């Protein structure tokens, strides 16, 4: 009788472990099946590792097989099948993706140990727990010393999955904790203390490193932004200086002064000449006297020489004080320019002012360019005698934009007041070009807050960015005002994962 009674607790424990095995395998099957479906079809590739689409279905299928084996009466074999599938998946993760060592180590250690403790005899649970600890160490070593097939940042899906499984199995352990043997309780407590203490230390160090690195990234982005803005401003300033030099040559001064003697400000006459010009252009009649008078003007020869020296300039022309075209490097679409906003701003009622337009695509030259117009000042009166107009090809900004590129994703861009962005695009290993496109709405909204440093998103991608207004702190007041009117914002940004890669590396080293 005593023997039978002594066996009753063992039999009760055996029955309890069998029931636990059935619950664990069924819960794992259902949970992993749902997680696998969610990960495969709803989680974007940027939010998961290359292994997620394989490992999660693998564990779900083997959990289903394990449940079948348990229901057939061999619960220990069924649990071993489940634990083996988790171990294989955990070991494979750091081989296929970098930066997942802590997830696989903590996840596999907790899950394997938890399942073993509530489903296997004490001796077997102890051996399995020790093996899980070794597996965690191996996962970390693989992550540290073996380069994975792909680099993967810490993903939201992985964190959620690890946390969900941990909570579920922790609940199972706590609900049965009073029934465990003393040895099992000690093993469970030891593992829990290790995981919590190491995790707390790692989290504290990680946050400290991230805060320091973010501050450093902020300084570096600000430095690159200021440098890029300065280089772009210097290049634009150089193009304006070229125009000032040309406008002050004797050929332009004398030629324009002579033209203005007989120039007409009669609107009817100007309209008639404009119609004559447009008719000649439509007929491609370069022999028209009006067209010939412009293209063969002695100022035109000066402009052509300038264009030969500075080929980034196109559609260079000079008007008289009424807006009529006097000389040009090629045929403009209109003869009368006085109704154009650029002419009115540059002439400024005879006072003169520098005008810089927004970047746009010009059909005539089939290039992206910026229209610049400056007054031609009469040296005797100081008044504007006419206007010098040009379109500068945006390729002059490629070098400054190249200086703003760093790493894999670091780049500088200009954000225009109309919601577009000017950015550099790599055409080949040795060739770049500038493009204009609509700026992402999420980033434009962040720019409106006028913060010099931003931790935000750009087209849905997390970025760190620094910005500065495009202004000049030197040169003539007129040039400074023209720069300020542009309303440009120079921004340097980098994908957050790359910018804070040092934190990821530190986290891996802490493992």
Summarize the structure.
This protein folds into 3 domains: 12-180, no CATH class; 216-227 and 401-507, 2-Layer Sandwich (Beta-Lactamase), CATH 3.30.450; 236-395, PAS domain (Beta-Lactamase). It is 59% helix and 16% strand. The chain has 17 helices and 14 strands.
Overall shape: it is rod-shaped
First CA to last CA: what distance? 54 Å
Radius of gyration: 37 Å
Tell me the total number of β-strands.
14
Give start-end ranges of low-pLDDT stretches: 502-511
**Percent of residues in β-strands:** 15-25%
Approximate helicity band:
55-70%
Mean pLDDT: 82
Write the layout of secondary structure elements.
Layout: H1 2-41, H2 52-71, H3 75-96, E1 97-98, H4 101-119, H5 122-145, E2 150-151, H6 156-176, H7 182-247, H8 250-261, H9 267-282, H10 289-295, H11 298-309, E3 313-319, E4 325-328, H12 341-347, E5 355-356, E6 360-362, E7 367-377, E8 384-393, H13 398-403, E9 411-415, E10 420-426, E11 432-438, H14 441-447, E12 453-458, E13 461-469, H15 477-486, E14 489-495, H16 496-499, H17 501-510
Parallel strand pairs: 1-2
Antiparallel strand pairs: 3-4, 3-8, 5-7, 6-7, 7-8, 9-10, 9-14, 10-11, 12-13, 13-14
Helix pairs in contact: 1-2, 1-3, 2-3, 3-4, 3-5, 4-5, 4-6, 4-7, 7-17
Commentary on this structure:
This protein folds into three domains: 12-180, no CATH class; 216-227 and 401-507, Beta-Lactamase (2-Layer Sandwich), CATH 3.30.450; 236-395, Beta-Lactamase, CATH 3.30.450. Helices cover 59% and strands 16% of the residues. The protein has helices at residues 2-41, 52-71, 75-96, 101-119, 122-145, 156-176, 182-247, 250-261, 267-282, 289-295, 298-309, 341-347, 398-403, 441-447, 477-486, 496-499, 501-510, and strands spanning 97-98, 150-151, 313-319, 325-328, 355-356, 360-362, 367-377, 384-393, 411-415, 420-426, 432-438, 453-458, 461-469, 489-495. Strands 3, 4, 5, 6, 7 and 8 form a six-stranded antiparallel sheet that branches. The protein has a six-stranded antiparallel sheet with strand order 11-10-9-14-13-12, sandwiched between helices. A hairpin with a 4-residue loop joins strand 9 (411-415) and strand 10 (420-426). It is rod-shaped. The model is unreliable at 502-511 (pLDDT under 50).
